Protein backbone atom coordinates (compact mmCIF):
# COMPACT_ATOMS: atom_id res chain seq x y z
CA UNK A 1 0.00 0.00 0.00
CA UNK A 2 1.40 3.39 -0.99
CA UNK A 3 1.83 6.13 1.61
CA UNK A 4 -0.79 8.21 -0.23
CA UNK A 5 -3.40 5.44 -0.06
CA UNK A 6 -2.51 4.73 3.55
CA UNK A 7 -3.07 8.36 4.44
CA UNK A 8 -6.38 8.32 2.53
CA UNK A 9 -7.52 5.20 4.43
CA UNK A 10 -6.57 6.73 7.77
CA UNK A 11 -8.55 9.85 6.91
CA UNK A 12 -11.59 7.77 5.86
CA UNK A 13 -11.43 5.81 9.12
CA UNK A 14 -11.26 9.02 11.12
CA UNK A 15 -14.39 10.42 9.46
CA UNK A 16 -16.62 7.34 9.50
CA UNK A 17 -20.10 8.13 10.88
CA UNK A 18 -21.39 6.52 14.06
CA UNK A 19 -24.47 5.21 12.24
CA UNK A 20 -25.83 1.90 10.95
CA UNK A 21 -24.81 0.96 7.44
CA UNK A 22 -22.96 -1.31 5.05
CA UNK A 23 -19.23 -0.98 4.30
CA UNK A 24 -17.30 -2.25 1.27
CA UNK A 25 -13.57 -2.96 0.95
CA UNK A 26 -11.82 -2.70 -2.46
CA UNK A 27 -8.33 -3.70 -3.59
CA UNK A 28 -5.87 -1.71 -5.74
CA UNK A 29 -7.61 -2.87 -8.94
CA UNK A 30 -11.01 -1.67 -7.72
CA UNK A 31 -12.23 -5.23 -7.11
CA UNK A 32 -14.75 -5.68 -4.30
CA UNK A 33 -13.15 -7.80 -1.55
CA UNK A 34 -15.70 -7.78 1.25
CA UNK A 35 -19.14 -6.46 2.20
CA UNK A 36 -20.09 -6.09 5.84
CA UNK A 37 -22.86 -4.62 7.97
CA UNK A 38 -22.53 -2.55 11.12
CA UNK A 39 -24.66 -1.05 13.83
CA UNK A 40 -21.92 1.59 14.03
CA UNK A 41 -19.79 2.00 10.92
CA UNK A 42 -17.14 3.87 12.87
CA UNK A 43 -16.59 1.16 15.49
CA UNK A 44 -16.91 -1.82 13.19
CA UNK A 45 -14.66 -0.68 10.33
CA UNK A 46 -11.99 0.67 12.66
CA UNK A 47 -11.82 -2.74 14.38
CA UNK A 48 -10.19 -4.20 11.25
CA UNK A 49 -7.20 -1.87 11.58
CA UNK A 50 -6.19 -2.70 15.13
CA UNK A 51 -3.11 -4.73 15.98
CA UNK A 52 -2.78 -7.64 13.49
CA UNK A 53 -2.33 -9.99 16.45
CA UNK A 54 -6.00 -9.42 17.32
CA UNK A 55 -7.17 -10.59 13.86
CA UNK A 56 -7.39 -14.09 12.43
CA UNK A 57 -5.23 -15.01 9.44
CA UNK A 58 -8.00 -14.59 6.87
CA UNK A 59 -8.82 -11.10 8.15
CA UNK A 60 -5.14 -10.16 8.18
CA UNK A 61 -4.89 -11.09 4.48
CA UNK A 62 -8.03 -9.08 3.77
CA UNK A 63 -6.74 -5.96 5.54
CA UNK A 64 -3.41 -6.15 3.68
CA UNK A 65 -5.27 -5.85 0.36
CA UNK A 66 -7.60 -2.97 1.26
CA UNK A 67 -6.91 0.17 -0.77
CA UNK A 68 -10.31 1.88 -0.66
CA UNK A 69 -13.34 1.90 1.63
CA UNK A 70 -16.89 2.86 0.66
CA UNK A 71 -20.00 2.85 2.81
CA UNK A 72 -23.74 3.44 2.64
CA UNK A 73 -25.69 4.67 5.66
CA UNK A 74 -29.16 3.17 6.23
CA UNK A 75 -31.85 3.96 8.83
CA UNK A 76 -31.44 0.86 11.02
CA UNK A 77 -29.37 -2.24 11.76
CA UNK A 78 -32.18 -4.30 10.22
CA UNK A 79 -31.79 -2.41 6.94
CA UNK A 80 -28.01 -2.95 7.08
CA UNK A 81 -28.57 -6.71 7.34
CA UNK A 82 -30.83 -6.68 4.31
CA UNK A 83 -28.60 -4.49 2.14
CA UNK A 84 -25.54 -6.57 3.04
CA UNK A 85 -27.37 -9.72 1.93
CA UNK A 86 -28.35 -8.21 -1.43
CA UNK A 87 -24.87 -6.86 -2.23
CA UNK A 88 -23.20 -10.17 -1.38
CA UNK A 89 -25.65 -12.13 -3.52
CA UNK A 90 -25.10 -9.75 -6.44
CA UNK A 91 -21.32 -9.22 -6.33
CA UNK A 92 -20.01 -12.44 -4.68
CA UNK A 93 -17.03 -10.80 -2.90
CA UNK A 94 -14.00 -13.02 -2.37
CA UNK A 95 -13.95 -12.81 1.42
CA UNK A 96 -17.70 -13.24 2.01
CA UNK A 97 -18.21 -16.97 2.48
CA UNK A 98 -21.35 -17.59 4.51
CA UNK A 99 -23.81 -15.71 2.29
CA UNK A 100 -22.58 -16.76 -1.16
CA UNK A 101 -25.19 -19.51 -1.58
CA UNK A 102 -28.49 -18.97 -3.35
CA UNK A 103 -30.54 -18.71 -0.15
CA UNK A 104 -31.96 -15.42 0.95
CA UNK A 105 -33.92 -14.02 3.87
CA UNK A 106 -37.52 -15.21 4.30
CA UNK A 107 -40.69 -13.31 3.36
CA UNK A 108 -44.30 -13.47 4.46
CA UNK A 109 -46.70 -14.06 1.58
CA UNK A 110 -50.47 -13.51 1.36
CA UNK A 111 -51.57 -15.90 -1.34
CA UNK A 112 -53.84 -15.04 -4.27
CA UNK A 113 -56.80 -17.30 -3.45
CA UNK A 114 -60.49 -16.90 -2.74
CA UNK A 115 -59.62 -17.50 0.92
CA UNK A 116 -55.95 -16.35 1.11
CA UNK A 117 -53.41 -17.99 3.39
CA UNK A 118 -50.45 -16.40 5.16
CA UNK A 119 -47.24 -18.32 4.38
CA UNK A 120 -43.48 -17.99 4.77
CA UNK A 121 -41.13 -18.45 1.80
CA UNK A 122 -37.59 -17.68 0.66
CA UNK A 123 -38.43 -17.37 -3.02
CA UNK A 124 -40.54 -14.73 -4.71
CA UNK A 125 -43.14 -15.64 -7.32
CA UNK A 126 -45.31 -12.60 -8.10
CA UNK A 127 -48.05 -14.86 -9.45
CA UNK A 128 -48.34 -16.65 -6.14
CA UNK A 129 -49.25 -13.66 -3.99
CA UNK A 130 -48.22 -10.46 -2.24
CA UNK A 131 -44.90 -10.46 -0.35
CA UNK A 132 -43.74 -8.62 2.77
CA UNK A 133 -40.23 -8.53 4.16
CA UNK A 134 -37.63 -9.85 3.98
CA UNK A 135 -36.89 -10.61 7.62
CA UNK A 136 -33.18 -10.61 8.43
CA UNK A 137 -34.04 -12.08 11.83
CA UNK A 138 -36.39 -15.06 11.43
CA UNK A 139 -37.40 -14.85 15.10
CA UNK A 140 -38.94 -11.44 14.39
CA UNK A 141 -40.89 -12.94 11.49
CA UNK A 142 -42.25 -15.75 13.65
CA UNK A 143 -43.23 -13.24 16.30
CA UNK A 144 -45.25 -11.43 13.64
CA UNK A 145 -46.88 -14.67 12.52
CA UNK A 146 -47.67 -15.53 16.11
CA UNK A 147 -49.14 -12.07 16.60
CA UNK A 148 -51.30 -12.46 13.48
CA UNK A 149 -52.48 -15.83 14.71
CA UNK A 150 -53.54 -14.28 18.02
CA UNK A 151 -55.23 -11.32 16.39
CA UNK A 152 -57.01 -12.95 13.47
CA UNK A 153 -58.52 -16.33 12.65
CA UNK A 154 -56.74 -17.02 9.38
CA UNK A 155 -56.81 -20.59 8.06
CA UNK A 156 -53.56 -22.60 8.04
CA UNK A 157 -54.80 -25.59 6.00
CA UNK A 158 -53.89 -26.27 2.38
CA UNK A 159 -57.40 -26.98 1.16
CA UNK A 160 -58.24 -25.47 -2.28
CA UNK A 161 -61.23 -23.55 -0.97
CA UNK A 162 -63.65 -22.15 -3.55
CA UNK A 163 -67.20 -20.86 -3.09
CA UNK A 164 -68.58 -23.68 -5.25
CA UNK A 165 -66.69 -26.37 -3.36
CA UNK A 166 -67.88 -25.00 -0.01
CA UNK A 167 -71.46 -24.89 -1.28
CA UNK A 168 -71.18 -28.54 -2.34
CA UNK A 169 -69.93 -29.55 1.14
CA UNK A 170 -66.60 -30.91 -0.10
CA UNK A 171 -64.68 -29.78 3.01
CA UNK A 172 -64.92 -30.40 6.75
CA UNK A 173 -63.65 -28.33 9.70
CA UNK A 174 -60.41 -29.48 11.29
CA UNK A 175 -58.96 -29.27 14.80
CA UNK A 176 -57.99 -25.59 14.30
CA UNK A 177 -61.68 -24.70 14.28
CA UNK A 178 -62.40 -26.62 17.46
CA UNK A 179 -59.58 -24.94 19.41
CA UNK A 180 -60.62 -21.46 18.23
CA UNK A 181 -57.85 -20.67 15.71
CA UNK A 182 -60.15 -20.71 12.68
CA UNK A 183 -63.81 -19.92 12.01
CA UNK A 184 -64.21 -22.74 9.47
CA UNK A 185 -64.80 -20.88 6.20
CA UNK A 186 -64.44 -24.38 4.65
CA UNK A 187 -67.94 -25.19 6.01
CA UNK A 188 -69.38 -21.74 5.31
CA UNK A 189 -69.26 -20.69 8.99
CA UNK A 190 -67.36 -17.54 7.91
CA UNK A 191 -68.24 -15.69 4.72
CA UNK A 192 -65.66 -14.73 2.11
CA UNK A 193 -66.31 -11.02 2.86
CA UNK A 194 -65.67 -11.47 6.59
CA UNK A 195 -62.61 -13.58 5.96
CA UNK A 196 -61.10 -11.09 3.49
CA UNK A 197 -61.82 -8.27 5.92
CA UNK A 198 -59.47 -10.03 8.37
CA UNK A 199 -56.93 -10.49 5.55
CA UNK A 200 -57.06 -6.76 4.92
CA UNK A 201 -56.20 -6.14 8.59
CA UNK A 202 -53.32 -8.61 8.26
CA UNK A 203 -52.12 -6.64 5.24
CA UNK A 204 -52.21 -3.40 7.29
CA UNK A 205 -50.08 -4.98 10.01
CA UNK A 206 -47.51 -6.34 7.54
CA UNK A 207 -47.27 -2.96 5.81
CA UNK A 208 -46.69 -1.26 9.12
CA UNK A 209 -49.99 0.61 8.83
CA UNK A 210 -51.06 -0.49 12.29
CA UNK A 211 -52.68 2.66 13.65
CA UNK A 212 -56.22 1.22 13.33
CA UNK A 213 -55.24 -2.10 14.89
CA UNK A 214 -53.40 -0.35 17.69
CA UNK A 215 -56.39 1.89 18.38
CA UNK A 216 -58.58 -1.22 18.54
CA UNK A 217 -56.22 -2.83 21.09
CA UNK A 218 -56.08 0.34 23.15
CA UNK A 219 -59.86 0.51 23.24
CA UNK A 220 -60.01 -3.13 24.38
CA UNK A 221 -57.32 -2.47 27.01
CA UNK A 222 -59.12 0.58 28.43
CA UNK A 223 -62.43 -1.25 28.52
CA UNK A 224 -60.88 -4.18 30.37
CA UNK A 225 -59.12 -1.88 32.85
CA UNK A 226 -62.34 0.03 33.49
CA UNK A 227 -64.06 -3.26 34.38
CA UNK A 228 -61.10 -4.17 36.64
CA UNK A 229 -60.18 -7.07 34.33
CA UNK A 230 -56.51 -6.36 34.75
CA UNK A 231 -55.20 -9.65 33.36
CA UNK A 232 -57.13 -9.07 30.15
CA UNK A 233 -55.91 -5.46 30.05
CA UNK A 234 -52.33 -6.75 30.38
CA UNK A 235 -53.07 -9.19 27.56
CA UNK A 236 -54.07 -6.34 25.24
CA UNK A 237 -51.16 -4.20 26.42
CA UNK A 238 -48.71 -6.93 25.43
CA UNK A 239 -50.28 -6.99 21.98
CA UNK A 240 -49.73 -3.23 21.67
CA UNK A 241 -46.09 -3.63 22.68
CA UNK A 242 -45.61 -6.35 20.07
CA UNK A 243 -47.09 -4.06 17.45
CA UNK A 244 -44.67 -1.31 18.43
CA UNK A 245 -41.70 -3.68 18.12
CA UNK A 246 -42.92 -4.76 14.70
CA UNK A 247 -43.48 -1.22 13.49
CA UNK A 248 -40.27 -0.50 11.60
CA UNK A 249 -39.10 1.07 8.37
CA UNK A 250 -38.55 -1.14 5.33
CA UNK A 251 -36.47 1.31 3.32
CA UNK A 252 -34.01 -1.12 1.82
CA UNK A 253 -36.38 -3.63 0.22
CA UNK A 254 -40.02 -3.91 -0.78
CA UNK A 255 -40.70 -6.61 -3.40
CA UNK A 256 -43.71 -4.85 -4.92
CA UNK A 257 -41.46 -2.13 -6.38
CA UNK A 258 -39.82 -4.44 -8.90
CA UNK A 259 -36.88 -2.81 -10.76
CA UNK A 260 -36.06 0.83 -10.01
CA UNK A 261 -33.21 3.29 -10.39
CA UNK A 262 -32.80 6.03 -7.80
CA UNK A 263 -30.68 9.12 -8.51
CA UNK A 264 -30.49 11.78 -5.84
CA UNK A 265 -28.68 14.92 -7.01
CA UNK A 266 -27.37 17.73 -4.87
CA UNK A 267 -27.72 20.93 -6.90
CA UNK A 268 -24.25 21.87 -8.17
CA UNK A 269 -22.49 24.93 -6.79
CA UNK A 270 -19.31 26.42 -8.24
CA UNK A 271 -19.08 23.62 -10.77
CA UNK A 272 -19.28 20.76 -8.26
CA UNK A 273 -22.22 18.61 -7.24
CA UNK A 274 -22.96 15.30 -5.52
CA UNK A 275 -25.03 12.29 -6.49
CA UNK A 276 -26.26 9.14 -4.78
CA UNK A 277 -27.29 6.17 -6.90
CA UNK A 278 -29.27 3.04 -6.00
CA UNK A 279 -30.31 0.28 -8.36
CA UNK A 280 -33.16 -1.92 -7.16
CA UNK A 281 -33.92 -5.26 -8.77
CA UNK A 282 -37.10 -7.10 -7.77
CA UNK A 283 -37.38 -4.84 -4.78
CA UNK A 284 -33.79 -5.24 -3.51
CA UNK A 285 -30.91 -2.75 -3.67
CA UNK A 286 -28.06 -4.44 -5.55
CA UNK A 287 -25.90 -1.39 -6.42
CA UNK A 288 -25.23 1.69 -4.35
CA UNK A 289 -22.73 4.54 -4.79
CA UNK A 290 -22.35 8.10 -3.53
CA UNK A 291 -19.89 10.37 -5.32
CA UNK A 292 -18.91 13.93 -6.27
CA UNK A 293 -19.38 15.15 -9.83
CA UNK A 294 -17.80 17.97 -11.82
CA UNK A 295 -20.48 20.06 -13.50
CA UNK A 296 -19.73 22.65 -16.18
CA UNK A 297 -21.51 25.86 -15.25
CA UNK A 298 -23.50 25.87 -18.47
CA UNK A 299 -24.99 22.40 -17.85
CA UNK A 300 -28.62 22.20 -16.74
CA UNK A 301 -29.84 19.87 -14.00
CA UNK A 302 -31.47 17.70 -16.67
CA UNK A 303 -28.15 17.34 -18.52
CA UNK A 304 -26.28 16.47 -15.33
CA UNK A 305 -28.93 13.93 -14.33
CA UNK A 306 -28.85 12.32 -17.77
CA UNK A 307 -25.06 12.08 -17.68
CA UNK A 308 -25.06 10.49 -14.21
CA UNK A 309 -27.74 7.98 -15.27
CA UNK A 310 -25.83 6.97 -18.40
CA UNK A 311 -22.56 6.65 -16.45
CA UNK A 312 -24.21 4.38 -13.87
CA UNK A 313 -25.87 2.25 -16.56
CA UNK A 314 -22.50 1.79 -18.26
CA UNK A 315 -20.58 1.15 -15.05
CA UNK A 316 -22.99 -1.49 -13.72
CA UNK A 317 -23.94 -2.85 -17.16
CA UNK A 318 -27.62 -2.17 -16.70
CA UNK A 319 -29.90 -2.88 -19.63
CA UNK A 320 -33.49 -1.97 -20.40
CA UNK A 321 -35.58 0.90 -19.18
CA UNK A 322 -36.70 1.11 -15.56
CA UNK A 323 -38.57 3.83 -13.64
CA UNK A 324 -36.21 6.44 -12.21
CA UNK A 325 -36.91 8.02 -8.82
CA UNK A 326 -35.24 11.31 -7.96
CA UNK A 327 -35.47 14.41 -5.80
CA UNK A 328 -35.60 16.47 -9.00
CA UNK A 329 -38.33 16.28 -11.60
CA UNK A 330 -36.71 15.82 -15.03
CA UNK A 331 -38.62 15.32 -18.27
CA UNK A 332 -36.40 15.18 -21.34
CA UNK A 333 -36.00 12.99 -24.39
CA UNK A 334 -33.53 10.71 -22.58
CA UNK A 335 -34.89 10.65 -19.05
CA UNK A 336 -38.13 10.96 -17.09
CA UNK A 337 -38.00 10.95 -13.30
CA UNK A 338 -40.61 10.51 -10.59
CA UNK A 339 -40.44 12.51 -7.34
CA UNK A 340 -42.12 10.47 -4.57
CA UNK A 341 -43.60 12.44 -1.69
CA UNK A 342 -44.57 9.74 0.82
CA UNK A 343 -43.99 6.12 1.71
CA UNK A 344 -41.02 3.81 1.21
CA UNK A 345 -40.05 5.38 -2.11
CA UNK A 346 -39.71 8.74 -0.41
CA UNK A 347 -37.54 7.15 2.27
CA UNK A 348 -35.21 5.94 -0.49
CA UNK A 349 -34.80 9.57 -1.59
CA UNK A 350 -34.18 10.67 1.99
CA UNK A 351 -31.60 7.92 2.44
CA UNK A 352 -29.81 9.18 -0.68
CA UNK A 353 -29.86 12.76 0.58
CA UNK A 354 -28.45 11.63 3.92
CA UNK A 355 -25.58 9.77 2.24
CA UNK A 356 -24.78 12.87 0.16
CA UNK A 357 -24.81 14.96 3.34
CA UNK A 358 -22.32 12.57 4.96
CA UNK A 359 -20.02 12.62 1.90
CA UNK A 360 -20.03 16.43 1.82
CA UNK A 361 -19.39 16.52 5.55
CA UNK A 362 -16.47 14.11 5.13
CA UNK A 363 -14.95 16.19 2.33
CA UNK A 364 -15.32 19.40 4.32
CA UNK A 365 -13.62 17.78 7.31
CA UNK A 366 -10.76 16.55 5.13
CA UNK A 367 -10.39 19.99 3.60
CA UNK A 368 -10.45 21.63 7.03
CA UNK A 369 -7.85 19.17 8.32
CA UNK A 370 -5.62 19.79 5.30
CA UNK A 371 -5.90 23.53 5.82
CA UNK A 372 -5.17 23.05 9.51
CA UNK A 373 -2.08 21.00 8.64
CA UNK A 374 -0.89 23.65 6.20
CA UNK A 375 -1.43 26.37 8.80
CA UNK A 376 0.32 24.20 11.36
CA UNK A 377 3.33 23.91 9.05
CA UNK A 378 3.43 27.69 8.67
CA UNK A 379 3.07 28.19 12.43
CA UNK A 380 5.87 25.70 13.14
CA UNK A 381 8.03 27.34 10.48
CA UNK A 382 7.47 30.77 12.01
CA UNK A 383 8.35 29.42 15.44
CA UNK A 384 11.44 27.44 14.31
CA UNK A 385 12.89 30.35 12.31
CA UNK A 386 11.70 33.03 14.76
CA UNK A 387 10.00 34.96 11.97
CA UNK A 388 8.21 38.21 12.80
CA UNK A 389 5.04 37.24 10.88
CA UNK A 390 3.42 34.06 9.61
CA UNK A 391 5.12 33.23 6.26
CA UNK A 392 2.00 33.02 4.10
CA UNK A 393 3.96 33.91 0.95
CA UNK A 394 7.22 32.02 0.49
CA UNK A 395 9.45 32.23 -2.60
CA UNK A 396 12.17 29.70 -3.38
CA UNK A 397 15.07 29.96 -5.87
CA UNK A 398 17.16 27.31 -7.67
CA UNK A 399 19.83 27.36 -10.41
CA UNK A 400 20.35 24.84 -13.19
CA UNK A 401 23.23 24.40 -15.67
CA UNK A 402 25.59 21.76 -17.03
CA UNK A 403 29.21 22.86 -16.69
CA UNK A 404 28.11 26.43 -17.14
CA UNK A 405 26.21 25.72 -20.36
CA UNK A 406 22.65 27.03 -20.81
CA UNK A 407 22.48 28.54 -17.29
CA UNK A 408 18.98 29.28 -16.03
CA UNK A 409 17.23 29.80 -12.69
CA UNK A 410 13.72 29.39 -11.35
CA UNK A 411 11.59 30.91 -8.65
CA UNK A 412 8.50 29.18 -7.27
CA UNK A 413 5.97 30.69 -4.92
CA UNK A 414 3.79 29.04 -2.25
CA UNK A 415 0.87 30.97 -0.77
CA UNK A 416 -0.67 29.60 2.43
CA UNK A 417 1.36 26.43 1.99
CA UNK A 418 0.13 25.72 -1.57
CA UNK A 419 1.85 26.22 -4.94
CA UNK A 420 0.76 29.45 -6.67
CA UNK A 421 1.85 28.56 -10.20
CA UNK A 422 0.79 31.84 -11.74
CA UNK A 423 3.51 33.43 -9.58
CA UNK A 424 6.33 31.15 -10.80
CA UNK A 425 9.14 32.85 -12.73
CA UNK A 426 11.98 31.72 -15.06
CA UNK A 427 15.32 33.50 -15.44
CA UNK A 428 17.96 33.41 -18.16
CA UNK A 429 21.33 34.14 -16.55
CA UNK A 430 22.62 37.27 -18.28
CA UNK A 431 25.71 38.58 -16.44
CA UNK A 432 27.54 35.40 -15.38
CA UNK A 433 30.04 33.53 -17.52
CA UNK A 434 30.84 29.91 -16.68
CA UNK A 435 29.58 27.67 -13.88
CA UNK A 436 29.28 30.19 -11.01
CA UNK A 437 26.22 29.24 -8.91
CA UNK A 438 26.87 31.96 -6.33
CA UNK A 439 26.98 34.79 -8.87
CA UNK A 440 23.96 33.34 -10.70
CA UNK A 441 21.96 33.25 -7.46
CA UNK A 442 22.93 36.83 -6.67
CA UNK A 443 21.81 37.96 -10.13
CA UNK A 444 18.35 36.34 -10.11
CA UNK A 445 17.52 37.40 -6.53
CA UNK A 446 18.56 40.97 -7.34
CA UNK A 447 16.57 41.02 -10.58
CA UNK A 448 13.48 39.52 -8.93
CA UNK A 449 13.17 42.01 -6.08
CA UNK A 450 14.43 45.02 -8.02
CA UNK A 451 11.48 44.51 -10.35
CA UNK A 452 9.08 43.92 -7.45
CA UNK A 453 10.20 47.21 -5.88
CA UNK A 454 9.94 49.08 -9.20
CA UNK A 455 6.44 47.72 -9.90
CA UNK A 456 5.22 47.78 -6.28
CA UNK A 457 4.74 44.02 -6.42
CA UNK A 458 4.17 41.70 -3.46
CA UNK A 459 7.17 40.79 -1.34
CA UNK A 460 7.39 37.42 0.44
CA UNK A 461 7.48 36.84 4.18
CA UNK A 462 10.27 34.30 3.62
CA UNK A 463 12.84 33.53 0.89
CA UNK A 464 14.24 29.98 0.58
CA UNK A 465 17.48 29.37 -1.32
CA UNK A 466 18.25 25.89 -2.63
CA UNK A 467 21.84 25.60 -1.41
CA UNK A 468 24.14 26.03 1.54
CA UNK A 469 26.03 28.99 2.96
CA UNK A 470 27.58 30.10 -0.32
CA UNK A 471 24.29 30.47 -2.22
CA UNK A 472 22.63 31.99 0.86
CA UNK A 473 25.32 34.68 1.23
CA UNK A 474 25.13 35.50 -2.48
CA UNK A 475 21.37 36.00 -2.23
CA UNK A 476 21.79 38.04 0.95
CA UNK A 477 24.24 40.36 -0.87
CA UNK A 478 21.55 41.04 -3.48
CA UNK A 479 19.00 41.89 -0.77
CA UNK A 480 21.53 44.20 0.92
CA UNK A 481 22.08 46.07 -2.33
CA UNK A 482 18.32 46.60 -2.54
CA UNK A 483 18.02 47.53 1.13
CA UNK A 484 15.78 44.52 1.87
CA UNK A 485 18.08 42.43 4.08
CA UNK A 486 16.17 43.44 7.24
CA UNK A 487 12.72 43.35 5.66
CA UNK A 488 12.62 39.81 4.23
CA UNK A 489 13.87 36.78 6.21
CA UNK A 490 15.97 34.42 4.10
CA UNK A 491 17.24 30.87 4.64
CA UNK A 492 19.15 28.24 2.67
CA UNK A 493 18.56 24.47 2.67
CA UNK A 494 21.43 22.08 1.92
CA UNK A 495 20.39 18.83 0.24
CA UNK A 496 22.79 16.38 1.88
CA UNK A 497 21.63 16.59 5.50
CA UNK A 498 18.60 18.84 5.03
CA UNK A 499 20.35 21.51 7.08
CA UNK A 500 18.74 24.93 7.40
CA UNK A 501 21.15 27.90 7.21
CA UNK A 502 20.26 31.37 8.47
CA UNK A 503 22.31 34.56 8.03
CA UNK A 504 24.68 35.11 10.94
CA UNK A 505 24.21 31.68 12.55
CA UNK A 506 27.39 29.77 13.30
CA UNK A 507 25.74 26.36 13.11
CA UNK A 508 22.93 25.10 10.86
CA UNK A 509 19.45 24.41 12.19
CA UNK A 510 18.16 20.84 12.11
CA UNK A 511 14.39 20.32 12.07
CA UNK A 512 12.75 16.99 12.89
CA UNK A 513 12.34 14.75 9.84
CA UNK A 514 8.65 14.48 10.72
CA UNK A 515 8.23 18.22 11.14
CA UNK A 516 5.50 19.75 8.92
CA UNK A 517 7.73 22.82 8.69
CA UNK A 518 10.63 20.83 7.20
CA UNK A 519 8.28 18.99 4.82
CA UNK A 520 6.99 22.34 3.57
CA UNK A 521 10.53 23.62 2.93
CA UNK A 522 11.37 20.37 1.14
CA UNK A 523 8.29 20.70 -1.06
CA UNK A 524 9.35 24.23 -1.99
CA UNK A 525 12.91 23.13 -2.73
CA UNK A 526 11.80 20.11 -4.80
CA UNK A 527 9.30 22.17 -6.77
CA UNK A 528 11.89 24.87 -7.53
CA UNK A 529 14.35 22.19 -8.63
CA UNK A 530 11.75 20.52 -10.88
CA UNK A 531 10.80 23.85 -12.43
CA UNK A 532 14.44 24.83 -13.04
CA UNK A 533 15.37 21.44 -14.55
CA UNK A 534 12.39 21.56 -16.90
CA UNK A 535 13.27 25.09 -18.02
CA UNK A 536 16.92 24.14 -18.48
CA UNK A 537 16.02 21.08 -20.58
CA UNK A 538 13.65 23.11 -22.76
CA UNK A 539 16.26 25.81 -23.34
CA UNK A 540 18.98 23.28 -24.13
CA UNK A 541 16.72 21.45 -26.57
CA UNK A 542 15.63 24.66 -28.25
CA UNK A 543 19.20 25.91 -28.70
CA UNK A 544 20.23 22.50 -30.01
CA UNK A 545 17.38 22.54 -32.51
CA UNK A 546 18.20 26.08 -33.59
CA UNK A 547 21.87 25.13 -34.11
CA UNK A 548 20.82 22.42 -36.55
CA UNK A 549 18.57 24.80 -38.49
CA UNK A 550 20.98 27.72 -38.58
CA UNK A 551 23.44 25.54 -40.48
CA UNK A 552 21.10 25.87 -43.47
CA UNK A 553 22.21 28.67 -45.81
CA UNK A 554 19.87 31.64 -45.57
CA UNK A 555 18.30 30.55 -42.24
CA UNK A 556 19.06 32.77 -39.28
CA UNK A 557 18.00 32.57 -35.68
CA UNK A 558 14.65 34.30 -36.23
CA UNK A 559 13.69 31.96 -39.07
CA UNK A 560 14.77 28.95 -36.98
CA UNK A 561 12.62 30.11 -34.07
CA UNK A 562 9.69 30.67 -36.42
CA UNK A 563 10.00 27.15 -37.82
CA UNK A 564 10.31 25.55 -34.38
CA UNK A 565 7.37 27.53 -33.08
CA UNK A 566 5.23 26.17 -35.92
CA UNK A 567 6.49 22.59 -36.29
CA UNK A 568 7.69 22.03 -32.68
CA UNK A 569 10.73 19.87 -33.67
CA UNK A 570 13.41 19.48 -36.32
CA UNK A 571 12.09 16.01 -37.15
CA UNK A 572 8.67 17.48 -37.92
CA UNK A 573 10.34 20.05 -40.18
CA UNK A 574 12.19 17.24 -42.01
CA UNK A 575 8.91 15.41 -42.54
CA UNK A 576 7.04 18.52 -43.72
CA UNK A 577 6.28 18.98 -47.40
CA UNK A 578 7.76 21.88 -49.32
CA UNK A 579 4.27 23.37 -49.59
CA UNK A 580 3.92 23.31 -45.79
CA UNK A 581 7.27 25.09 -45.43
CA UNK A 582 6.19 27.75 -47.93
CA UNK A 583 3.24 28.62 -45.69
CA UNK A 584 5.67 29.47 -42.84
CA UNK A 585 8.81 31.01 -44.41
CA UNK A 586 7.98 31.76 -48.03
CA UNK A 587 8.88 30.00 -51.28
CA UNK A 588 12.56 30.89 -51.57
CA UNK A 589 13.62 29.84 -48.07
CA UNK A 590 11.31 26.83 -48.17
CA UNK A 591 13.12 25.46 -51.22
CA UNK A 592 16.53 25.95 -49.56
CA UNK A 593 15.41 24.30 -46.33
CA UNK A 594 13.72 21.38 -48.06
CA UNK A 595 16.71 20.67 -50.32
CA UNK A 596 19.20 20.95 -47.46
CA UNK A 597 17.29 18.64 -45.10
CA UNK A 598 16.66 16.02 -47.75
CA UNK A 599 20.20 16.02 -49.11
CA UNK A 600 21.95 16.07 -45.72
CA UNK A 601 22.32 12.99 -43.48
CA UNK A 602 20.06 13.19 -40.40
CA UNK A 603 21.60 14.32 -37.14
CA UNK A 604 20.52 13.89 -33.56
CA UNK A 605 17.93 16.60 -32.88
CA UNK A 606 18.71 16.81 -29.18
UniProtKB/TrEMBL annotation:
Residues 354-381 form a coiled coil. Residues 18-97 form the GIY-YIG domain. Keywords: Coiled coil, Cytoplasm, DNA damage, DNA excision, DNA repair, Excision nuclease, SOS response. SUPFAM superfamilies: C-terminal UvrC-binding domain of UvrB, GIY-YIG endonuclease, RuvA domain 2-like. SMART domains: GIYc (SM00465). Signal peptide: none annotated. Residues 277-479 form the UvrC family homology region profile domain. Interacts with UvrB in an incision complex. The UvrABC repair system catalyzes the recognition and processing of DNA lesions. UvrC both incises the 5' and 3' sides of the lesion. The N-terminal half is responsible for the 3' incision and the C-terminal half is responsible for the 5' incision. Belongs to the UvrC family. This is UvrABC system protein C. It comes from Thermonema lapsum.
